[in-house]
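Much of what follows relies on a compact textual record of a protein's fold. With that in mind, consider the following protein and its fold in token form.
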Amino acid sequence: MLRKTYDRTIQLADHPHALWWLAVVAFLESSVFPIPPDLLMIPMILARPQRAWLIAGVALVASVLGGLLGYAIGALAYDSIGQPILAAMGKADAMAEFNTRFNDFGFWAVLTAGVTPFPYKVITIMSGWTGMPLATFVATSILARALRFFVVAGLLRAFGAPVREFIEKRLGLVFTLFILLLIGGFATVKYL
């Protein structure tokens, strides 16, 4: 089943509307959706390495725009939308204490969440809720997401064939590692 899903994802990565789907996923992941855009971006680059920079650029722009939605949720609708999202992730009780410290480390928080598997949506909502300066948030989001997406794109473009062979030969291991990283990101959110 995993092999069929992988093959289908590679097939869809070459679909004419794949960039639009990537943009939708990257946008939503930055504010409300739990699935990272890497799940689409990586197979898209493996399928068409010559489009690596375009794919990373689409993910970057959509992710930063989605981050602005997350910021707006935190700033304008925290009580009705943002708080339930963070409560679902087990963060509601720690919000008051965290609010006092967040803006002191806001640049680093956004940078870290934007580059790592840590759920970026948590930081986007909290940035708006704590009143982080919008210019700082946008600049840091662009830097963090560009690092994440363009480094991945560059590595896949440079080493695409061997990476693809590695993934295809060890699909179960790669999938397990990805799931562990995803769970680790959510566990980090829960216990911070």
In short: Residues 2-191 form one domain. The chain has ten helices and no strands.
